[in-house]
Amino acid sequence: MTLFSSMNRSRAARSILVASLPLAVSAMTFADTEGEEHFDIGIWNDGGVLRTGGWDHDTESLEVANLRVYEAHFGEDPDFPFAIDEPGIGGVAADLGLPVGATLGLNMLSGLRVWNGDGFDTTFGSTMFIDYGPSSINSKTGGLINFLISDDYDLHPIYSINPDSEAGSYLLEFNVSMAGFETSDSFWIAFNYGLDDEDFETSVEWVEGNLVPAPGVLGVLAMAGLTSRRRRS
Fold this sequence. Notes:
Number of helices: 5
Radius of gyration: 17 Å
Helix content: 10-25%
Largest sheet: 7 strands, mixed
Number of domains: 1
Structural class: alpha+beta
């Protein structure tokens, strides 16, 4: 299969998913009722610095103040095996210290990594895409997608992968920016594409232990009083 054909199949899956988002979201809500905890990417204002945490739409609260690694699983909906709309970006602007009407930029850094059992390789042929409305970026070039912050927002870009990609754990790096605020530190999303769950969790733990620095004093203080839970898609 050529790369062009793979990209066309991937774009077709993304287009179908856009049209079917209400059904996809309903299916994911049902999965949450089965006991799986789900956090969206919660962006919050820490004295003028943007931070990432775990936002829970069920409780409408930032359950984890500092979260830098998120998980996603392709194939949870068999009708869309190459495209998903999780994790989302959500929150209540007033609670997170963000101005309503501001533009939040999600910046995907170029380069897609794949788990090799001991770390992540950067040289291979697969590509991932992110779409939101008319905006589209990919892992080969990186890029920026802008989101409008409303009072209570729940934004879900669509992540997709080349259909002929090998099973594995795939890693993308991001940061977020907003005028008048300091850009966030990097955060990562690990995507499970057909890999054994135990092997995938091993790859996530590697990211947490090797790419995310231990929280400093300010990070510890920020987490005080909040319920810290490990995110699981």
